[in-house]
């Protein structure tokens, strides 16, 4: 199968698997991440086949929906890519990226060994920021039956993946526990620029949220 056919079949597979998903991990999230990752990848001179396949498959079996199992994603991606007879070297690179892409807690390092992984991680993180990021955070929080906000629950800075995974905090706290930390953790300078605008937008949203909460506006 040539590269175009592999991508086309993978798009169909992911679209069929994730369409209609209601927690922000739907096909349109993947489509935005794929477009951003390819754009960053072109700018940075990355291997675009690896970038596009990793972006397309990065949420095919996310640990958040598989009892915290970090290997579920790479396993599902490998099974799919092998069924498309993708060469072993590419499968290994894509699976390595999918296994490392996720945020795992404020104090947990999530290093990306390759340029291809770095642009996919940046694109996935950019889609957690800004107006789209705000929408996704509340969609996911509602799905997990998290409160929107509670002044009685302080944000935490998680020092292990288990603590982050098992936390049941509010969605407003999620901004402090993850989303507001991401702009400073981008791997590429192009992503850092985009992250900056999205980060400012979230900060003004939070300001307004708290001012309405207090009845000040
Ligand atoms: P990652 O793999 O880094 O978690 P994803 O593509 O899976 O990235 O998307 C994470 C999305 O899920 C973000 O938009 C984020 O806001 C949302 N999310 C994750 N954990 C929470 C949480 N505890 N509360 C609210 N939203 C969350
Ligand atoms: Ni994602």
The CATH topology turns out to be Hypothetical protein af1432
Quick one: overall form? globular
**Number of continuous helical runs:** 10
Looking at how many chains there are and whether they match, the oligomeric state comes to single chain
Bound ligands, each once: adenosine-5'-diphosphate, nickel (II) ion
**Proper CATH architecture:** Orthogonal Bundle
* Beta strand %: under 5%
Radius of gyration: 17 Å
- In round numbers, the mean pLDDT is 97
By CATH reckoning, the class would read Mainly Alpha
Provide the low-confidence segments as ranges.
none
Q: What is the helix fraction of residues, given as a range?
A: 55-70%
Summing up helix and strand content along with how strands pair, one would put the structural category as mainly alpha
State the end-to-end distance: 59 Å
The number of domains is 1
Main sheet makeup: none
DSSP strand tally: 0
Output the helix-strand order. Answer: HHHHHHHHHH
Characterization of the model:
With 217 residues, this protein is mostly helical. It has one domain: Hypothetical protein af1432 (Orthogonal Bundle). It contains ten helices and no strands. It has helices at residues 3-18, 27-44, 48-57, 72-83, 88-100, 115-126, 130-143, 161-166, 171-177, 189-213. Helix 2 (27-44) packs antiparallel against helix 3 (48-57), helix 2 (27-44) packs across helix 6 and helix 3 (48-57) crosses helix 5 (88-100). The chain is globular, with a radius of gyration of 17 Å. The protein starts with a helix and ends with a helix. The mean pLDDT is 97. Residues 24-25, 59, 62, 101-103, 124, 128, 133, 136-137, 140-141, 146, 171, 174 line the site of adenosine-5'-diphosphate.
């Amino acid at each position: 199968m040539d590269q175009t056919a592999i991508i086309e079949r993978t798009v169909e597979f992911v679209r069929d698997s994730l369409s209609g998903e209601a927690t922000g991990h739907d096909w349109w999230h993947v489509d935005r991440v794929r477009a951003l990752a390819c754009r960053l990848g072109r700018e940075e001179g990355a291997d675009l086949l690896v970038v596009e396949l990793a972006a397309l498959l990065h949420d095919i079996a996310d640990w958040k929906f598989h009892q915290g199992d970090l290997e579920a994603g790479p396993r599902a991606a490998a099974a799919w890519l092998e069924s498309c007879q993708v060469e072993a070297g590419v499968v290994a690179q894509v699976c390595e990226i999918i296994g490392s892409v996720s945020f795992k807690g404020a104090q947990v390092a999530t290093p990306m060994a390759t340029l291809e992984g770095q642009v996919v991680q940046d694109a996935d993180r950019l889609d957690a920021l800004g107006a789209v990021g705000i929408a996704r955070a509340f969609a996911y929080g509602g799905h997990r039956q998290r409160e929107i906000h509670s002044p009685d629950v302080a944000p935490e800075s998680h020092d292990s993946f288990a603590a982050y995974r098992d936390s049941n905090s509010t969605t407003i706290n999620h901004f402090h526990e993850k989303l507001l930390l991401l702009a400073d953790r981008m791997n590429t300078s192009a992503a850092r620029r985009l992250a900056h605008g999205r980060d400012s937008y979230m900060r003004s949203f939070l300001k307004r949220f708290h001012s309405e909460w207090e009845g000040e506006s």
